[in-house]
Amino acid sequence: MAATRRITVGVVTAAVCAAGLAGCGTERGTGAGQEPGSKATPAPAPDNAVRLIGDGSTAHTGVQPHQPRPQRLKPGQKPPQFVVFSWDGAGEDSQKLFSHFREVGKANNATMTYFLSGVYLLPEELKDKYQAPQHGPGRSDIGFNDTEGIADTVREVRGAWLDGNEIGTHFNGHFCGPEGGVGTWSVAEWKSEIAQAKSFVKTWKSHSGLKDAEPLPFDYDKELIGARTPCLEGQENFVSAAADLGFRYDSSGIGNQVWPGRKKGLWDIPLQLVPLPGREFETLSMDYNFMVNQSGTTTQGDPAMHEAWGDQLRDGLIQAYDRAHRGNRAPLIIGNHFESWNGGTYMRAIEETIEHVCNKPETRCVSFRQLVEWLDAQDPKVLAQLRDLKVGKAPEGGWEKFPAKTPAGSAESGGSGKERAEGA
Fold first, then answer.
1. Which segments show compositional bias classed as Basic and acidic residues (predicted)?
2. Cβ(24)–Cβ(71) under 8 Å?
3. How many structural domains compose the chain?
4. pLDDT at position 416
5. Distance (Å, rounded) from C-alpha 228 to C-alpha 325?
6. Which DSSP string do the residues of 252-290 spell out, in sequence order?
7. pLDDT, tens only, 389-398
8. Per mean pLDDT, which range of 35-39, 45-49, 200-204 is the poorest?
9. 278-305: b or e for each residue (b if 16 or more CB lie within 10 Å)?
10. Domain boundaries, position 29
11. Which stretches does DSSP call E strand in 264-378?
12. CATH number assigned to the domain comprising residue 135
């Protein structure tokens, strides 16, 4: 289809990237994200129950707060309209976008996924501790950090998790393209990259010298269950490696607005083709891809167009939301970067999108972790029928007659997969 020819995957090159569920609720009160009578998981264990891990960079602190409790769909019940806002290479720098969007999330009953880049917790002077596959020691296309940047990023990661958000990984050096890029890496090389990304999170105190700082309040070996690869490259070998390491999902693919299935045992939850208002084709549901279709590879295009370009991103995502909400209710997956491209217009557009969609009835703005918890709680035969619904199409006869007594697909990975293939 024409749209796929216009997909461009984002590359972040700055040294430090300025860069809740159906039948369940949260501890944030009633409203768009909570249903009456539902229960949330308890808050973390008290301070005296904290158990430090390793050098004290991370710790066991009990169950993560603000986590909804998923329930199975009942016959005739509409699925919630899930929306996942996710951030690639999450880190806090002078623009303070990480901290800002944490507040935006709390104000709009939204939890999100922050894909942390491991090298943002490694200081420049210790860069040789990172040995990227197919590159020499100390190489990174997004640089490293300094002590202040590490402290700021750790503070936001800690707060984000306590707010109920998920901490995933965007790995380390962000290498793209045919010359040593992640698309050329073997399964073994991916395992090395994953191990190093985990290690930098688990040892940030030793590397930064911030030994008196508070630990991250989670065990990263257990917290880390999903990722998005740099430039959406190398998915096949990454998924093979991740499946061996206990990951539960991947969001490195390209697809349509249909319900996700599994790939090598992991939930395959891709970015999606969404409307590009005013154009005859669709583009990927990521800020970078809208930018490329507006100002090319120039990150600071015509200032006179900045407002219109941001509006185009916001309106395209809202159109995608409306298409799913009135149709097949497929989760809407949105990817972002903490960047000020084209005067910061995309950050303004994403904030307006969050404010618009996350407060809608029957809508849940959730993390990937929360989405896969809901998917895992469903009847596989019902999920198979959901996957057979085409983009923007509700079940024949309406949701009150869903699921059909004779499922169109019967295997857990069911559905024809036709819609996914067309978007690849």
1. 394-403
2. yes
3. 1
4. 37
5. 25
6. --EE-SS--EEETTEEE--EEEEE-TTSSSEEESBHHHH
7. 999 999 999 9
8. 35-39
9. eeeebbbbbbbbbbbbbbeeebebeeee
10. 2-423
11. 266-268, 271-275, 282-284, 332-337, 363-365
12. 3.20.20.370
